Batch of 2 targets.
Target 1
Amino acid sequence: MSISDDVFTVFISHKHEDHALALEVMNAMEGLDPERIDCFVSGVDITAGMDWRREIRSALAKSHLLVLLFTAPSKNWDWCLYETGLYTRFDQSEARSVVCLFSPGEASPSPLADLQGVPANAENVRAFLDTLCRRTWEISDDWRRGALQLEVAPDRLEAAARAIAEAFRRSGSASTYYPCHRLVLSLSETDDIASGIPESARVMIGPNDTSGYTMSLFDLAGGTGKRTWGDLLRAVNGTEADWRRELDSHFLQALDEQLFPPIAGRMRAGGASRGQERLYRPILYSIVRGPTVGTMSDDAAERGRRPRTVTIVLDPEPA
């Protein structure tokens, strides 16, 4: 990446439906120092007739920081992750110039788990913007010009942070009602999937993922700690249960794109501490694969098929 002057360039990566959010983030960031901070937002900075792929590559090459606006795990993020892969030269271990702004209560995408993530609430965004202005070199590998705005006014930082947090809140206002208990698990590159759904898979909490009501079946609703599939299994004595072995078998068959019979086992859950236990059929509902983020190698095809999220539906038996 080249540095031609004192202007700090930010590439804002976003989905098309989040374009309004991208513009608000752009306005908030540029407002901190209009003369030294310049944001690139595709759709605004690319005009008709341009080769948009070439323009995006050019903009990425000139940028000092990429900010990914990650609004919901349920959306398809292939293109944004492709942009991020181009920007980081497919080398996550050394990239320090990517920041993922994600909706509070969600998490950054698993392929970017090792990069900088910032929950889009006012407090965390303000800390990120403060670092951007006063200790710019800490969030950009290629910036060598010292602090962007050492004397940035606290009220200006606060206003920008609140504007971004409010924009994220509005962007996530649409929701979907799922008339069932859903467990959504996120898998990383390092999770061992040889024997089934890994116990290290992280439980995704949120309105479009695993709800607090579903977590209450395991007496694990509330709290701020990260939960895993292993935590849920232990909560219902399911680690060695027959239904768990069936579910793992279905998972492996699904990875091979094979059909499997209905599950016979039943999981006992429902809030043992309240005396409201009930039997549920845990059904493997979906597996989302890819995308591959990294240099192509001999095992690229296998990594491209790697599961990223698993959704399990809990079907209650009649009371």
Target 2
Amino acid sequence: MLVIVTENVPPRLRGRLAVWLLEIRAGVYVGNPSKRLREFIWAQVTEGVEADGNAVMAWSTNTESGYDFLTVGKNRRIPVDFDGLRLVSFLPPDAPKKAP
């Protein structure tokens, strides 16, 4: 099983993803591609995400947690490795800007 979630990506990338995967909600794609196709799709995502966009891809695999994931683009959630277990850390929110 493969899941890709996108935010603020161009329509052309969303269209490309819809060729290989089923879009079950806006920006949420699922499917069961081979490893080779998964790697090809991720290459398309990393090339197609623009400055304000971000994406995450998670898939089933034979690990302790049963899945693995990759991210691209700016987001408060960042992956961290904790003794071989992939977890997610949260960056602090942007401080509100003060009026001059």
